[in-house]
Amino acid sequence: MLYGRDEELATIDRLLGQVREGRGRTLVLRGEAGIGKTALLDHAAAEASGMRVLRGTGVECESGMPYAGLHMLLSGHLDRIDSLPDAQARALRNALNMGARQDADGGDRFLVGLAVLTLLADLAEEKPLLCLVDDAHWLDGPSVEALLFAARRLEAEPVGLLFAARDMDAPEFPAPGLPEMRLRGLDRAAATELLARHAAELPRHVHHEILAAATGNPLALLELPGLRTQAHDASSAYERIRRSYAEKIAALPEPSRTLLLLVAADDAGGIGAIMGAAERLGASVDDLEPAERRGLLRSTADGRLEVRHPIVRTAAYGDAPLNLRIAAHRALAETYRERGDRCHHAWHLARSATGPDEAVAAVLESTAGDERDTGGNASAAAMYESAAALSPDPAARGRRLATAARAYAFAGLTDRAVELAARAEADLDDPRARADLTLIRASLADEQDRTKEAYRMFAETAASVAELDPRLSGYLFFQAAGAAANAGDYAAVDAIAARGTELELPNASHLRALSRVFAGQNPLAASGDMAGGVAALRELMDGMNLCFGPRDRVRVALWHILIGDIEGAAETAAELEARYREQGAIGLLAPVLMIRARARLMLGHHRDARTAATEGLRIAADTGQHRIRVYLETVLGLLAAIEGDEERCTELTEEALARAVPPSSVHAAAARGLLDLGLGRHEAALSRLSDVVSGPNRQGAIASLPDLVEAAVRAGRPELGEDAAGWYTGWARQIGRPWAEAIALRCAALLAPDGAADAMFAEAVELHRKGGTPFERARTELLYGEWLRRSRRRNDARAQLHSALEAFERLGAAPWAERVRTELRAAGESLAAAGADAGGDDLAARLTPQELQVVRLAAAGLSNREIGAQLFLSPRTVGYHLYKAYPKLGVASRGELPHLDLT
């Protein structure tokens, strides 16, 4: 019975009920040691009738072993990994060091999280699943990341996840976005009842002393009566409980203490390994009984030995003399060596070392090499790091730290990779080796939006190897220029180009071309060379030797947009997206979806753009790609501007404007300017867009020049749009795209005298019909229709306006559609007649972005499992989205989906 926990028990029971109903639920229990977290987990396990229960506990001395916690939690079901989609199965096997490498680098830690989600969902297919994780604050980082990744995606799976984490005297267990329950001490009545039931024989004054000392901590109330020193003790409840357990352990026979120490020192807890080590230290299976009788040790149904409470482990291991801890680890190391478990052998051997030891370091390094060869980069990295710590020779230490940094980077553990790469540099003399480390550190810094730091590291290291390795130097300088541009420092880009020329680097021409690209992206700037910028961009795109890795390929896809090749950008992004989805490379998807969203928006596929941007935004947030996340917010902000949703547009562009780094800041301001223009706030639009194109950094502003022209004309100040129209016209001629030439003609028509405007508008409409940008075509038709109506050519005006209205309504551009209706009324049509032409039923508009993704893939014949693998969802969640979509679409099964128009 749990005293004083009625509300907490009700919360747990409610969670179990929701899981049984098929709803995924997660809860983090927080509180000090002994406050009742473990007891609530025990209650959940006891009440989980009809459910499958997985249980694991974080172990302090194993918190540095990547995926040790995950292995412990899933240990009884590792045979199910083979049923996962190939990429997921491969990633999880690599993470858990199972089997030989199968053309996988183990580099995407988020794919491991997806594999965990799918495995949990598979286990829950048979009956609801409950996962209980005690002492979650001691779990290794990769296990935490994988479990939280899965927890945040539990939707329609009958899976419950309960984490118990200490919030004092322990590391932090951050779980942002997950529901939490913080446990407080029992009230006086409940504490008194609990103590009276378990220690009724104590004198009254001792009862009062214990109540005061325990401060409502249930475990303290149970343990303090047996503690010999109670009065006037100022130590914390945790320390008193630990001391109580230490006294119980000290009272055990020596062989029993040895067994308890072995269990506390080993994460696996297998009876065979524990008893093998115990025999080496003079203990036997008979010595288990005293520890079990005193409530310190227990055996589990799956053949493991475990301590009864996490604090028992702390007391058994922490209070043991150093020589006994060393002896325990050595005995375990030898036992695991005989059993053929090289990984545990190496770890326990490392923990038995008392100082630098090259022999032990060599064993760790050799084992790490095997781990890395089988794709277990996270485990290998931790072993290399441990080997470095035991290396007497600084050169060996630096080499092992460098290897650890690379393995951490491949495993996606970026913060750790950066830290170890920085430490390794101090021990390395070879400039090439130091440059290799800088490439890791700076690339990760750039990805994490620490762009100025990345630029500095790239540039300094590039200069240091210029004479030794010019090609490497040139590549590092190119990366430095990219980082400088990401930071908005275009002067640094120019300086790098000059430096590359001065050093006569092999790719100096590419560095100069990159400088010219950014100069050509600065509209209305005195230094802007738009023609040179477009030519330089084509030169770079032809230099495919720049594409050394996946992110370089993404950069080339973005360059397609910069030269107006929207179809090429969309196709390239789609190819990369398909590749990365097939590989399960979720970390690479965010920048690809960024490009895909922008291209689909420009092509008029707003629904696809929203779907790609929404998914990309979630992935970017998961993977810590802040710069990409902010950019994607501006894409959604532009969609909101087109739709006239002022509140959402403002919200989505706020961070980009505060960050003040182009092109995101420019796109954000441009979105707000377009919103003003659509809502008829012409002076506000003119002011905002004028600021955009006259600011110090204007990357991304070219697309806003036509908006500035229209705002200037509508505000009655057309002269303020002339330079913008001229710049845009020159750019359109350089890229040679019909849609851009059409927009340039529209700008010219707005500024032209009436005698010349008609032909310009007409030619613009014809060019738009060759494809490109439906929203811009509709704007041209609207402006032309307005001009025709003012010229008293009402029939001609209505033809243009009806075409514009159809496009605006299809795109959901509400304020623009209303402007067309106003013009149609002025042209002599009734509102009903104007609305009658809208026609059609847009089935896809009934669905959420994720439902639309799922339905389209289902219509293409993919199974729920295949869809889940592509969208990083569990198969059951895919089924849930289909279940919600069917009634919206008026169908009863997936067999009807291929016959629907879902474009």
Automatic annotation (TrEMBL):
Report domain HTH luxR-type positions: 840-903
Among SUPFAM superfamilies, the record links this protein to: C-terminal effector domain of the bipartite response regulators, P-loop containing nucleoside triphosphate hydrolases, TPR-like
Q: Which parts pass through the membrane?
A: none
Could you name the domain of life of the organism this protein comes from?
Bacteria
Q: Which UniProt keywords apply?
A: ATP-binding, Nucleotide-binding
**Which protein is depicted?**
AAA family ATPase
